Amino acid sequence: MFGIDVNTIIGLLPQDNNAAMFILLIMFGIKSLTMVFPLSWLFFASGILFSPGKAICVSLTGQLIALTIPYILGRKCGSEGMERFRKKYPKLDRLMEYQDHNTVFLCFIMRIIALIPGDVLSLYFGSCKVPYHIYAPVSLVGCIPIAVCYTLLGDEVSNPKSAAFIGLIACRLILCVISIFISIYMEKKQKSENNN
Questions:
Q1: 67 within 8 A of 140, measured Cβ to Cβ
Q2: In b/e form, how buried is each residue of 42-78, taking b as 16+ CB within 10 angstroms?
Q3: How many whole angstroms separate alpha carbon 46 and alpha carbon 117?
Protein backbone atom coordinates (compact mmCIF):
# COMPACT_ATOMS: atom_id res chain seq x y z
CA MET A 1 0.00 0.00 0.00
CA PHE A 2 1.71 3.17 -1.25
CA GLY A 3 5.05 1.29 -0.99
CA ILE A 4 4.89 1.22 2.82
CA ASP A 5 5.52 -1.97 4.78
CA VAL A 6 6.90 -2.92 8.21
CA ASN A 7 10.51 -2.59 7.00
CA THR A 8 9.76 0.89 5.63
CA ILE A 9 8.32 1.91 9.00
CA ILE A 10 11.36 0.55 10.85
CA GLY A 11 13.65 2.30 8.35
CA LEU A 12 12.01 5.64 9.13
CA LEU A 13 12.76 5.33 12.85
CA PRO A 14 15.95 6.71 14.43
CA GLN A 15 18.56 4.38 15.97
CA ASP A 16 18.06 5.79 19.47
CA ASN A 17 15.51 3.63 21.34
CA ASN A 18 13.70 6.49 23.07
CA ALA A 19 13.51 8.58 19.90
CA ALA A 20 12.27 5.51 17.96
CA MET A 21 9.59 4.93 20.58
CA PHE A 22 8.46 8.57 20.40
CA ILE A 23 8.28 8.56 16.57
CA LEU A 24 6.45 5.21 16.59
CA LEU A 25 3.81 6.66 18.95
CA ILE A 26 3.41 9.61 16.57
CA MET A 27 2.87 7.07 13.77
CA PHE A 28 0.05 5.49 15.79
CA GLY A 29 -1.58 8.92 15.89
CA ILE A 30 -1.10 9.41 12.15
CA LYS A 31 -2.49 5.93 11.48
CA SER A 32 -5.69 6.82 13.35
CA LEU A 33 -6.30 9.57 10.76
CA THR A 34 -5.35 7.69 7.59
CA MET A 35 -5.75 4.35 5.82
CA VAL A 36 -2.17 4.29 4.47
CA PHE A 37 -1.06 1.19 6.40
CA PRO A 38 -2.65 -1.28 8.83
CA LEU A 39 -2.28 -0.83 12.59
CA SER A 40 -0.84 -4.35 12.85
CA TRP A 41 2.34 -3.16 11.09
CA LEU A 42 3.01 -0.74 13.94
CA PHE A 43 2.55 -3.59 16.43
CA PHE A 44 4.98 -5.72 14.41
CA ALA A 45 7.50 -2.86 14.29
CA SER A 46 7.23 -2.41 18.05
CA GLY A 47 7.81 -6.14 18.59
CA ILE A 48 10.84 -6.15 16.30
CA LEU A 49 12.46 -3.04 17.81
CA PHE A 50 11.94 -3.47 21.55
CA SER A 51 12.11 -6.15 24.22
CA PRO A 52 8.74 -7.94 24.66
CA GLY A 53 7.74 -6.06 27.83
CA LYS A 54 8.65 -2.64 26.44
CA ALA A 55 7.13 -3.50 23.05
CA ILE A 56 3.78 -4.37 24.63
CA CYS A 57 3.80 -1.10 26.62
CA VAL A 58 4.60 0.89 23.45
CA SER A 59 1.92 -0.95 21.45
CA LEU A 60 -0.78 -0.44 24.08
CA THR A 61 0.13 3.23 24.50
CA GLY A 62 0.02 3.60 20.72
CA GLN A 63 -3.32 1.79 20.61
CA LEU A 64 -4.71 4.21 23.20
CA ILE A 65 -3.54 7.13 21.06
CA ALA A 66 -5.17 5.54 17.99
CA LEU A 67 -8.41 5.12 19.96
CA THR A 68 -8.39 8.67 21.31
CA ILE A 69 -7.76 10.89 18.26
CA PRO A 70 -10.77 9.68 16.18
CA TYR A 71 -12.91 9.70 19.34
CA ILE A 72 -12.13 13.41 19.85
CA LEU A 73 -12.89 14.12 16.17
CA GLY A 74 -16.18 12.23 16.52
CA ARG A 75 -17.16 14.35 19.53
CA LYS A 76 -16.48 17.49 17.49
CA CYS A 77 -18.52 16.15 14.53
CA GLY A 78 -21.53 15.42 16.75
CA SER A 79 -24.81 14.11 15.36
CA GLU A 80 -24.13 15.37 11.81
CA GLY A 81 -20.99 13.26 11.69
CA MET A 82 -22.91 10.26 13.02
CA GLU A 83 -25.41 10.52 10.17
CA ARG A 84 -22.57 10.43 7.64
CA PHE A 85 -21.08 7.37 9.35
CA ARG A 86 -24.47 5.62 9.35
CA LYS A 87 -24.88 6.16 5.60
CA LYS A 88 -21.41 4.83 4.86
CA TYR A 89 -21.58 1.93 7.37
CA PRO A 90 -25.17 0.60 7.66
CA LYS A 91 -24.03 -1.79 10.41
CA LEU A 92 -23.85 1.23 12.72
CA ASP A 93 -27.66 1.23 12.86
CA ARG A 94 -27.57 -2.16 14.54
CA LEU A 95 -24.90 -0.87 16.91
CA MET A 96 -27.11 2.04 17.90
CA GLU A 97 -29.96 -0.33 18.75
CA TYR A 98 -27.67 -2.56 20.78
CA GLN A 99 -25.96 0.38 22.49
CA ASP A 100 -29.15 1.30 24.33
CA HIS A 101 -28.84 -1.94 26.31
CA ASN A 102 -25.14 -1.97 27.20
CA THR A 103 -22.63 0.63 26.02
CA VAL A 104 -19.74 -0.85 28.03
CA PHE A 105 -20.18 -4.31 26.53
CA LEU A 106 -20.51 -2.81 23.05
CA CYS A 107 -17.28 -0.77 23.39
CA PHE A 108 -15.50 -3.96 24.44
CA ILE A 109 -16.96 -6.54 22.08
CA MET A 110 -16.76 -4.44 18.91
CA ARG A 111 -13.00 -4.22 19.38
CA ILE A 112 -12.75 -7.99 19.55
CA ILE A 113 -15.00 -8.91 16.63
CA ALA A 114 -13.81 -6.06 14.35
CA LEU A 115 -16.89 -5.90 12.10
CA ILE A 116 -16.34 -2.20 11.51
CA PRO A 117 -12.94 -0.46 11.06
CA GLY A 118 -11.52 0.64 14.42
CA ASP A 119 -11.17 4.31 13.43
CA VAL A 120 -14.83 4.43 12.37
CA LEU A 121 -15.87 2.87 15.70
CA SER A 122 -13.89 5.52 17.58
CA LEU A 123 -15.52 8.29 15.54
CA TYR A 124 -18.91 6.70 16.20
CA PHE A 125 -18.47 6.44 19.98
CA GLY A 126 -17.15 10.00 20.07
CA SER A 127 -20.11 11.33 18.07
CA CYS A 128 -22.47 9.44 20.42
CA LYS A 129 -20.79 11.29 23.31
CA VAL A 130 -19.96 8.07 25.16
CA PRO A 131 -17.97 9.33 28.19
CA TYR A 132 -14.23 9.00 27.53
CA HIS A 133 -13.57 7.51 30.98
CA ILE A 134 -15.82 4.58 29.96
CA TYR A 135 -14.94 4.39 26.27
CA ALA A 136 -11.11 4.47 26.50
CA PRO A 137 -10.34 1.79 29.11
CA VAL A 138 -13.06 -0.60 27.93
CA SER A 139 -12.04 -0.23 24.26
CA LEU A 140 -8.37 -0.66 25.16
CA VAL A 141 -9.10 -3.88 27.07
CA GLY A 142 -10.98 -5.14 24.00
CA CYS A 143 -7.94 -4.35 21.83
CA ILE A 144 -5.38 -6.03 24.13
CA PRO A 145 -5.55 -9.59 22.72
CA ILE A 146 -4.85 -8.55 19.12
CA ALA A 147 -2.34 -5.81 20.02
CA VAL A 148 -0.31 -8.15 22.24
CA CYS A 149 -0.52 -11.02 19.75
CA TYR A 150 0.78 -8.91 16.83
CA THR A 151 3.45 -7.29 18.98
CA LEU A 152 4.79 -10.65 20.13
CA LEU A 153 4.61 -11.95 16.56
CA GLY A 154 6.93 -9.08 15.59
CA ASP A 155 9.39 -10.32 18.21
CA GLU A 156 9.24 -13.85 16.78
CA VAL A 157 8.98 -13.02 13.06
CA SER A 158 12.64 -13.85 12.44
CA ASN A 159 12.00 -17.41 13.66
CA PRO A 160 8.72 -18.54 12.03
CA LYS A 161 9.34 -22.22 12.86
CA SER A 162 9.58 -21.56 16.61
CA ALA A 163 6.93 -22.89 18.98
CA ALA A 164 6.26 -19.32 20.16
CA PHE A 165 5.55 -18.09 16.62
CA ILE A 166 3.28 -21.05 15.83
CA GLY A 167 1.50 -20.60 19.18
CA LEU A 168 0.89 -16.90 18.49
CA ILE A 169 -0.48 -17.65 15.01
CA ALA A 170 -2.77 -20.25 16.62
CA CYS A 171 -3.92 -17.64 19.19
CA ARG A 172 -4.69 -15.19 16.38
CA LEU A 173 -6.73 -17.83 14.54
CA ILE A 174 -8.61 -18.69 17.74
CA LEU A 175 -9.42 -14.99 18.22
CA CYS A 176 -10.76 -14.85 14.65
CA VAL A 177 -12.98 -17.90 15.24
CA ILE A 178 -14.25 -16.49 18.56
CA SER A 179 -15.02 -13.15 16.92
CA ILE A 180 -17.00 -14.91 14.16
CA PHE A 181 -19.07 -16.84 16.71
CA ILE A 182 -19.72 -13.72 18.80
CA SER A 183 -20.74 -11.83 15.67
CA ILE A 184 -23.18 -14.62 14.64
CA TYR A 185 -24.59 -14.76 18.19
CA MET A 186 -25.14 -10.99 18.32
CA GLU A 187 -26.79 -11.06 14.89
CA LYS A 188 -29.18 -13.85 15.93
CA LYS A 189 -29.97 -12.21 19.26
CA GLN A 190 -30.78 -8.92 17.57
CA LYS A 191 -33.02 -10.62 15.00
CA SER A 192 -34.95 -12.44 17.74
CA GLU A 193 -35.36 -9.18 19.70
CA ASN A 194 -36.62 -7.42 16.56
CA ASN A 195 -39.11 -10.23 15.89
CA ASN A 196 -40.56 -10.02 19.44
A1: yes
A2: bbbbbbbbbeeeebbebbbbbbbbbbbbbbebbbebe
A3: 21
In the chain the first and final C-alpha atoms are separated, in Å, by: 46
Domain contains 32? yes
Residue 106: CB atoms within 10 Å: 23
Residue 169 lies in a domain: yes
- For the entire predicted model, the pTM comes to 0.81
Identify the segments of the chain with pLDDT beneath 70. Answer: 1-3, 79, 81-82, 85, 89-101, 157-160, 164-165, 179, 183, 186-187, 189-196
Q: Is residue 1 part of a domain?
A: no
Query: Would you give the DSSP letter of residue 16?
Result: S
Domain that residue 45 falls in: 6-195
Domain count, the chain: 1
